[in-house]
Amino acid sequence: MDTPAFIVTHWQDEQKVFLKNLELLKDHSDKDAVHDIRVAIKKLRAILELYIFLTTEKLWENPLNETETLFKVLGRQRDIDICLEKLKNPVTHSGFTFHELSSFFESVLKKARQWTSVAVRQYDENEIGRIKVLLKSEETHLTNEVTLQKAMTIITSQLLEARQLLKLPHQLRQHLKKIFYWVRMLPGGLPVIFHEKELHEITDDLGIWQDNEIFLARLRHFKKDFLPKTYDEYGQLRILTLEIRNVNKLLLSKALRKTRKLLKTVALNEKEKALS
């Protein structure tokens, strides 16, 4: 196993990514920094959850409370950034420009950026610092073969629990993404053994599906509450909605098919281990 303990190493790495992008956002608005800091938070969340599984440690209440609040505020800007990206490359090939929807998103983005600016300046960096201190204090207990074996058992168990989420694609993606982060933390060639490639493909498909769902939700809100039905764009958005729904239907079907195949493989492997 890596030394220092892989959990501590990965926490330190993601904490650096988090703080780097936090400083960027304190200085100016940056779409990529918003994305990167949210990914770092997801990874920090996953690392902490794995630590709790491994140690059965009872931490103080809501150890990432302020970080989760920041995550949600940044998510408002991220949603609008996603929507504007979708409009740059719309699914439709009809040549529609969606000027009204674009203008609406741009106006909302201005406010979302203001909220982001306030949130990053109010954030207390000591929160993740306290967890780093905790992990460092446990480092000697996390650097051993028993910890690695336990982590692999947890990953397998959590993978099989994904069967309960097949009808809840948003929760399924969150669950599998967490496991994907765990798998990528494993040293040596273990990520390949624990289906890193398959998890990456599935979570990517579900990620595109989710981005499309966010876009459709914002589009529905705009059509219902703002855009007059007399505008040509109203009908154009209906066409775009249908096309994205069709794409999402195929994406979800593919992702679920891959997930079922993966879970079947994991279950068979566990059965063979039990019989050997």
In short:
By secondary structure, this protein is mainly alpha-helical. It has 11 helices and no strands.
Number of strands: 0
Helix content: over 70%
Radius of gyration: 21 Å
The CATH homology group name = CHAD domain
The residue-averaged pLDDT reads 92
Distance between the termini: 26 Å
Oligomer: single chain
Order of helices and strands: HHHHHHHHHHH
Q: List the total number of helices.
A: 11
What features would you describe in this structure?
The protein contains 11 helices and no strands. The longest helix is centred in the last third of the chain and has 44 residues, at 232-275. The protein is mostly helical. It is 81% helix and 0% strand. It has one domain (6-269): Alpha solenoid (CHAD domain).
Main attributes of the structure:
mainly alpha; flat; CHAD domain
Any chance you could write out the topology, listing elements then pairs?
Blueprint (H helix, E strand, L loop, with lengths): L5 H22 L3 H25 L9 H24 L10 H24 L3 H12 L1 H4 L2 H17 L7 H17 L4 H4 L2 H30 L6 H44 L1
Helix pairs in contact: 1-2, 1-4, 1-5, 2-3, 2-8, 3-4, 3-10, 7-8, 8-10, 10-11
